[in-house]
Amino acid sequence: MTDYFQKHVDLLDKALDACAQRYSWSAWPENPSSKIHGEEKPAAGKAAFESRLQADFPLDQPGTTGHLGAEVSPYTRKPLGVRYPATDVPALYDAIRKAQPAWAQASPQERVGVCLEILQRCGDNLFENAHATMHTSGQSYVMAFAGSGANALDRGLEALAYAHKAMADVPGEARWQRQFGRDGVADLHKQYRLMPRGVGVVICCATFPLWNAYPALCASLATGNPVVLKPHPSAILPVALVVRTCREVLADAGFDPNLVSLVADERDAPATMALLEQPETAIVDFTGSPAFGTWLENNLPGRLVYTETAGCNSVILESTDDLTATARAIAQSLCQASAQMCTSVQNIHVPADGVRVGGERVGVDAVSRALVEAVDFWLADPRRAATLCGTLFDDSVQATVDRYREKAAADATILRDSAAYSHEEFPGARTATPLIIAADPAHREWYRQEVFGPVSFVIANGSRADCLADATGNARECGAITSHVYTTDDGFMQQAIDAYHAAGASVACNLTGMPINFAAAYSDYHVTGLNPAGNACLADLAFVAQRFRIVQSKVMA
Amino acid sequence: MTDYFQKHVDLLDKALDACAQRYSWSAWPENPSSKIHGEEKPAAGKAAFESRLQADFPLDQPGTTGHLGAEVSPYTRKPLGVRYPATDVPALYDAIRKAQPAWAQASPQERVGVCLEILQRCGDNLFENAHATMHTSGQSYVMAFAGSGANALDRGLEALAYAHKAMADVPGEARWQRQFGRDGVADLHKQYRLMPRGVGVVICCATFPLWNAYPALCASLATGNPVVLKPHPSAILPVALVVRTCREVLADAGFDPNLVSLVADERDAPATMALLEQPETAIVDFTGSPAFGTWLENNLPGRLVYTETAGCNSVILESTDDLTATARAIAQSLCQASAQMCTSVQNIHVPADGVRVGGERVGVDAVSRALVEAVDFWLADPRRAATLCGTLFDDSVQATVDRYREKAAADATILRDSAAYSHEEFPGARTATPLIIAADPAHREWYRQEVFGPVSFVIANGSRADCLADATGNARECGAITSHVYTTDDGFMQQAIDAYHAAGASVACNLTGMPINFAAAYSDYHVTGLNPAGNACLADLAFVAQRFRIVQSKVMA
């Protein structure tokens, strides 16, 4: 039997160091270029994906009662035809119950080793995963390879490093000797054992199915808990591939593969409640809508619930030395993944009397024009547009865009209209460029919620202080995962940082020349847990420390 | 301004090392003897306590609307007459709100330093605290000095060490540099800031008011949260003394004393709900009844709730080489603090065909006699009886004893009756020796719950396997804080350890010659959180890691 912990210990050590120092590092390649990987691997990944289509997905799970699956590619608009096990949840849990004791009994190192091997094998399958992600979540190929590949795996490794650290904090044994009174001498041999909580259910989202799945999987599995992955009905395949890999690694390591399982569903027959009804379900990791996330947070007493939902991410554009660069940075966020990312910017706050650019004040209209031009800059080349925007994962996103276009036409001003861009490779792809609406505080009920998809608002607040009050108030009350400030005024920057922090939000200042949506594993604590956009952080000790408990024995020598 | 962190850094380092190695260590004296402390300190402590009686307790808190307090000494049976502030909770919270920002802004080291100074000053006040604890909780002087002194302070320092460790895991800043694509170069200066959750409310119990108060106080306060202590109405004074010390230290350190406050109440007008109704209350630490603990766990969604309640602690007496020593170890637990400790033994399981002692099998009746004799051994000397048993903190405990005596007289056998023992120093003290009832599984509804006070059961189960099944089933379903096994059979010992662990309970094997109730800070993880006797552990990373969150700023260079 391979000692997977020893095999990957350098990788783990590097991750631990990166978490401690929080520098830039990735354990996997972000670039799918054949210059790096050769021709064969990308082609093999594509072929592997294609071989999955119109077929039963090979996953031999207990409790299988039939097949289901209704994924439709946002690129081809055709059903993928992949058929996953339909699961009788109680029967599956019977099997999980049998798998549990040996896993709980395994040493933390053994379990961490298995998780490291899982991540590594998933890392060997990035090309197939990229195609699977494209044709479910609708991401572009490059984003699907990087964001749902290396970036997601890194978050998994990060969570695993924290789980390892938290478990390693508990020694295996101790000797304890002392005198009691005149006569009593105690000499105790103590052993400490880590105990899992129960089954961890991981509810994945449609647009970035693995970004939270890897961390939740690693955090729960490494600490001894079997894991059931419940993908979004639109994006099952990327999750199924991971589950398949997990089951292979577990079997190779001599464990019961039922320690990781898939419960897929379709929209009209969701499986989540059946999983929550199982008393063994002790941990729930959720990524998805604020409404269901809040419900989970409030209605599962005695269980651990980790949520990442959404908010209304803001930019305060107060001043800049380079309006073009700033506008492009913001515009890139409006375009990237068609603003279906949890880090996408939505609300751009601008003082009503304009933005200071160098020595001059540039009015709101001109700033808005600069933003629109910056969006058009990103979209000018159809290939770049496709790489940047990808597609809308579902018709409902287009419906949201249409709804806001109508509202804006009636009660506001459309600064930039949304339209499909033409996709070279997939002419039928469901695409939409950013809709940008000129708003002011009269429209606050429009922008004080997540508008999921490529809809954004340029909001003219009174003063920069009003911008800050509006943006941070919204972060506090409606949630925020990312917040941005552009300013050349150090005093205002500090004021903004303090105000966002007081609102329970993190903040980035003057980011240009890079994709501002980027949240770096090992460096950016993702989601503060202090505002309505989620209660958990990827990743910190709080994300892992509760997933196991400690029992001990003490024996008198 | 004194740098309290530097002043006490050696103490903290020692505590961190003790937690990591889990050896025996205490930072404070357990022995009140004047041979160690001289004559003056004990006398001064007693005088200080006496000066508190029949007087307003000096605590200048906002929101004070009058005075209250109805403590009665279990020794003298007389009201203490100490009058504490009656608090208008919203007005107090207004003041707390003002105190909060500067404390959140202080560095983790500064806050840890203040907590270390608080513990040290409380450690300088152990004699006054001992008298205060005696005359409220009813503990004996020795127990009040050690168990509510050093042992409790150690638990506080332990929790503080974990809080420090969890906070130190987050670096203050980082530099993050990477290339994006061909042109983009990002160079970010990141700063990470720890944010408190809100107000921590600490609900203390009657019999060991500080044992959980110090850990909860330190864990919440060090991580930036103001703390409100809500003592049991029978045992306010020990808590009030701590609050007074906290407020002094905070003021000396330049912080607002309202960061720690007392909300005392009387039985007929409890203040807890008013504290829970405050939206700022983000953390609740509770020690007390399983019923209210469970209610708190289930009804405060979105808040952190840490409970230590109670269970039906068991002993399995399977075999021993020394029945007298074993019986004395168990009997000491039945006597100690009149079995009002969370670690007191209640259910003594014995195989129906007897206990193997050396080569022989000793029948249940003879084992029961040995236990009764052992209790009588401990109680033979009135001074030792007083030191060991202390008093019943409240009439309700005597009522419980009486109720079980009646039940047993009707439907079981009384092995040893309870009676008052006579207390030399306080002839009117409310005392009771152990009531021991012969039971069998027909009485399981009697013993499958905490019977609070000196009531225990010798339970004749069928076989040793039946003993184990009964005891571990009760631990799983009804809770257990301590569990004991006495056996000379290594195989059975391992089986018992595994069975208790599987039930979510810790277990001690063959402890004799020491007080088996003793739970050692820095070494014994107290409460597993896996059975109904509580959801939190003193102390581990899970006890502290959620009490703060992380926000960050990143600024492009």
TrEMBL record, chains A, B:
Signal peptide annotation: none
UniProtKB keywords: NAD, Oxidoreductase
Domain Aldehyde dehydrogenase: 72-511
Molecular function terms from GO: L-glutamate gamma-semialdehyde dehydrogenase activity
UniProt KW Thylakoid keyword: no
InterPro entries in the record: Ald_DH/histidinol_DH, Ald_DH_C, Ald_DH_N, Aldehyde_DH_dom, PaaN_2, Proline_metab_enzyme
GO cellular component: cytoplasmic side of plasma membrane
GO terms of biological process kind: L-proline catabolic process to L-glutamate
NCBIfam families reported in the protein's UniProt record: PaaN_2 (TIGR02288)
Protein name: Phenylacetic acid degradation protein paaN
